[in-house]
Design goal:
About 50% of the residues lie in helices and about 10% in strands. The chain contains 21 helices and eleven strands.
Length: about 500
């Protein structure tokens, strides 16, 4: 376990889960109060906050992209091991030969610091938030350009990428990650639909239906290999296993919204089929630059596609990127409906980013609906600052919280943005004024609004009353309930980890 919580005696466990009448025992309440008071004392000291928040159990990272989660240094190391090259005119990874004009080997680049540094800058947004990025390039253009620059290095290194993501999560005491990703089988499906009418969903579905079982089988087999490679890297199942092995990763199949619309439908169809067939895939998403002209043109169509597929796969959960926009990036008209359509048309249970909420038509009514229906928002503070320039008081986090909309903190693309989950929590304190009770609620909400299967530990609001079988945490009824509900089991362990954390002397 991330905080060695397995050493905690069962009676101690029950004090935080059940207490007396579903209330934490007095000792647990006192420990929580001491922890909250300590954070208050150090809130204006980022170095002290970093130490404190690094150790805090953080529940879940529900918005984390495969590839973007990894650092440029990782990709450069993998490129060197694979004998790949760097194009000196663009600083992209390219195939050999490396002695061709405008190419150098990735191997040994650490001995040429000027070029090494330019590679790191080309593959990340390093320096942009500090105001030392390229003045000729916006943060959002640099951010989205990085993926094409390092993508060749990710090929055949998927297991290494998962291992690196899981290791970083363990370092930040994150217990569960929903990793956004795709599948190589989608490319063949996209070719099959060609130039079909993207508005004829029934015809597209009919063309794809006989092809989907094989595409699902290929995708599941791919992830079998990736996960086996990651487990081998981290030594999972062996006595010297790394802490990363205690981090659970599941996947959100993520379609790209910037390709021809019939191809988007093909990606989405595979995602829904995969989420139904493979329990590692817990939902479907859609991503890529929301301000891209194709994404803007087809946004309404994409939401209709998702609604069509959702009606045929009602149990598949949706977390959709929506509202990753701000005034000036697109015309005002394109700020007025993206979040609403993701919620009301497509049926999203979570929204990724949601930055333009205040520009939505009748934003107040939309916020009320999201609060009532418990549609959570994945908040990515560093990403929003780097890509959109939205931070501090301009960020809508406080608006969502005041409206009663559940929020979670997430990393987005922590490798590209040069951040980690601990830094997101530090920013939440220093820039957004959150305190320990707020952060603890966010930790709990991360697991509550995850797409882990099974019922919740909580009867209603996370941190409130537990479900009836776990009123006595050490009962056989609770043990049976936890065994049948992975979400509740993960939540129970998080409560144990939080109690251990709060009992640390400071």
């Amino acid at each position: 376990m991330l905080l060695a919580a397995s050493t905690v005696h069962a009676r101690k466990i029950s004090s935080v889960i059940a207490g007396h009448g579903d209330k934490p025992a007095a000792g647990a309440r006192a420990a929580e109060a001491r922890t909250a008071a300590y954070l208050d004392r150090i809130a204006d000291s980022p170095p002290r906050l970093r130490i404190f928040l690094q150790a805090m159990p953080k529940g879940a990272d529900l918005h984390n992209h495969d590839g973007g989660a990894n650092y440029a240094e990782d990709f450069l190391r993998w490129a060197a091991a694979d004998g790949l090259c760097i194009a000196t005119d663009s600083y992209r990874v390219v195939d050999p030969p490396c002695d061709a004009p405008d190419r150098i080997p990735a191997a040994g680049l650490e001995y040429d610091y000027p070029r090494y540094s330019r590679v790191i800058d080309a593959w990340s947004t390093r320096g942009f938030e500090a105001g030392v990025g390229d003045p000729r390039e916006s943060g959002y253009d640099r951010f989205f350009a990085t993926f094409a620059a390092f993508s060749r290095a990710s090929r055949h290194n998927e297991g290494k990428a998962i291992a690196a993501t899981r290791e970083q999560a363990a370092a930040d005491h994150v217990a569960y990650v929903e990793l956004s990703n795709g599948a190589r089988a989608a490319a063949d499906l996209a070719r099959q639909v060609g130039d079909m009418d993207p508005n004829d969903f029934a015809a597209l579905q009919a063309r794809l239906a006989p092809l989907l079982p094989n595409a699902v089988a290929i995708s599941s087999a791919d992830y079998d290999r990736y996960e086996a490679a990651a487990a081998e890297i981290d030594g999972c199942g062996r006595p010297a296993a790394k802490p990363a092995c205690g981090v659970e990763i599941r996947y959100l199949y993520t379609a790209l919204r910037t390709v021809p619309p019939a191809q988007v439908f093909a990606q989405l169809a595979l995602g829904f089929a995969l989420a139904e067939a493979d329990p590692r895939f817990v939902g479907v998403n859609i991503a890529a630059p929301e301000h891209d002209p194709v994404a803007v043109r087809d946004y309404v169509l994409h939401m209709r596609m998702i609604a069509f597929l959702k009606a045929r796969h009602p149990k598949v959960a949706l977390s959709l990127h929506a509202g990753e926009l701000t005034l000036g990036l697109v015309p005002p008209r394109d700020l007025s409906f993206h979040i609403r359509d993701a919620v009301e048309v497509a049926g999203a249970r979570r929204i990724g980013h949601g930055i333009d909420i205040s520009y939505e038509t009748d934003a107040t009514a939309l916020l009320k609906k999201m609060a009532r229906d418990r549609v959570a928002v994945e908040i990515n503070l560093t990403s929003n600052a780097v890509i959109l320039g939205v931070k501090g008081r301009a960020h809508p986090l406080s608006l969502y919280r005041e409206a009663g909309v559940p929020v979670v903190l997430a990393t987005d693309d922590e490798g590209v943005s040069r951040t980690d989950m601990t830094n997101e929590y530090v920013r939440a304190v220093t820039e957004q004024g959150l305190r320990y009770g707020d952060l603890k609620q966010i930790v709990r909400d991360g697991l509550q609004y995850s797409f882990l299967p099974g019922a919740s530990l909580w009867q209603d609001r996370p941190g409130g009353a537990t479900v009836a079988p776990c009123r006595v945490a050490t009962s056989s009824a609770c043990a049976e309930f936890l065994a049948a509900n992975p979400k509740a089991a993960k939540q129970r362990q998080m409560e144990i980890d939080l109690e251990v954390f709060e009992r640390i002397a400071r």
